Amino acid sequence: MDKEWLSPGTVLDQGRFEVIRAIKAGGMGAVYEVVDHRLGGKPYALKEMINPGVDMEGQRNARERFISEIQVMMTLKHPNIPRVTTQFLHGKSFYFVMDLVRGIDLSQKLKRDGDPGLPAGQVVGWALQILSALEHLHKRPQPVVHRDIKPSNILLDEDTGRIALIDFGISAASNPGDGLWIGTPGYAPPEQQWGKPEPKSDLYALGATMHYLLSGIKPTNDFEFEELKVDAQLNKAIKAALMNWPDERVASAEAMAESLRNLKNIQVDLPSMGDQDFNGAVDAYKNEVLDPSLKELISRYGNECHTRFLPQNLDYMQFVLASPTPFELQITKDENRSVVAFREKQGILDARLIGEVDPQSSDRAQKTQEILTQYIQDYEESKGWGVAF
Question: What's phi and psi for 382, nearest 5 deg?
Fold first, then answer.
């Protein structure tokens, strides 16, 4: 029996997420646009992976691998990598929720605008953004290898020029040890086809991607580098990424980026950093200011605090004190206004705004302390009211 994909209006995860539309579907899963009702209808992408296990043990092992890899994905924080915010199981499928990136993938961009290839300045600018993401992945204590870099897995926001690297080879988490390799012929180097991917495998795939975008000629498994009608230094940089053997290939994402930044005859197109600066500032604010302050309250209030663990990402956070009536502090990242908003909710009463913090401001710590002081004062007063709201 064929898999039935989720229809618009389907709700998942105890009513939190509602399916708006299917973005794409394939043999092993699908991607949907959903809204998060807990965040007032904020749109996200929901990726579904079908559990391939044929028996109970196979399904259990696949579930454990999926959860393990998703937990790694949830720790990744980079402006060119959509953030994974949560994961859950439903039926026989795995689901994870990530930032919704609107744009055109580079294979579509090439098909629409290629003549037969695309301008070198654009391609190099996109490559530099991808290499920045790969540096973040490859320099982790346990390096993360994307395994499937290709034009259709690179999204471009044409308004900002910002690139997003999507569709990590996450299906490795749900494939039993059957010897199959993850990747795409023409973009996967020999070691990856032998089931032994390493960080340099991603550099080969990026080199093949750049060659295709510049030439309009799709790579194949027996692909051999052909000189492009571009700057000699750029030819050299791409060729260094496309060496068959890892030992002969460019040393790292950092080294490849350096060679592209040193191109003298190409005007490179790079995006505005405004959105990236804000998201980076929010991450720093959470780690340096907000989390330490909330952890102090967790310690101070003991059993009265119903929030024992803080989430990794600051999209939406609930901090709850109760004695016995719940007294919530709802903390939300507002990307439209570039602030972090704090709302207070007493029992069944509507939440009310008690303050906002600009995570890029010099007085962010002081304003946060003022807001938390107000929240604590209101909570302490509520304990003496003797009224259950």
Answer: -65, -30
Q: Average model confidence (pLDDT) for the chain?
A: 86
3-state secondary structure 249-301: CCCCHHHHHHHHHCCCCCCCCCCCCHHHHHHHHHHHHHHHHHHHHHHHHHHHH
C-alpha–C-alpha distance, residues 30 and 9, integer Å: 16
Domain positions in the chain are 1-100, 102-272, 274-383
173: which DSSP letter? G
CATH architecture of 1-100: 2-Layer Sandwich (3.30)
Q: What is the mean pLDDT of residues 325-330?
A: 91
CA-wise closest residue to 118 among 240, 41, 215, 48: 215
Strands 316-322 and 93-99, sheet pairing: unpaired
From 39, 224, 198, select the one nearest 134 (Cα to Cα): 198
| CA–CA dist 333, 18 (Å, integer) | 21
**Contacts of 239 by beta carbon, 8 Å cutoff, 6+ apart:** 207, 225
Residue in the structure block whose two tokens are 């002969």: 248
Give the residue numbers marked as catalytic: 148
Q: List the helix and strand counts (H, then E) for the chain.
A: 10, 13
Backbone angles phi, psi at 198, to 5 degrees: -145, 170
Q: How far apart are CA 263 and CA 126, in angstroms?
A: 14
Say how many CA atoms lie within 13 Å of 140 toward its Cβ.
18
Please say whether the structural domain 102-272 has been given the CATH code 1.10.510.10.
Answer: yes
Residue 178's pLDDT band (cuts 50, 70, 90): very low
CB burial string 332-364: b at 16+ within 10 A, e below = bbeeeebbbbbbbbbeeeeeeebbbbbbeeeeb
Measured from the Cβ of residue 373, the count of other Cβ atoms closer than 10 Å reads: 10
pTM above threshold 0.85:
no
Residue 40 DSSP SS3? coil
What whole-number distance in Å separates Cα of residue 117 and Cα of residue 103? Answer: 19
Q: What is the DSSP string of 11-26?
A: EETTTTEEEEEEEEEE
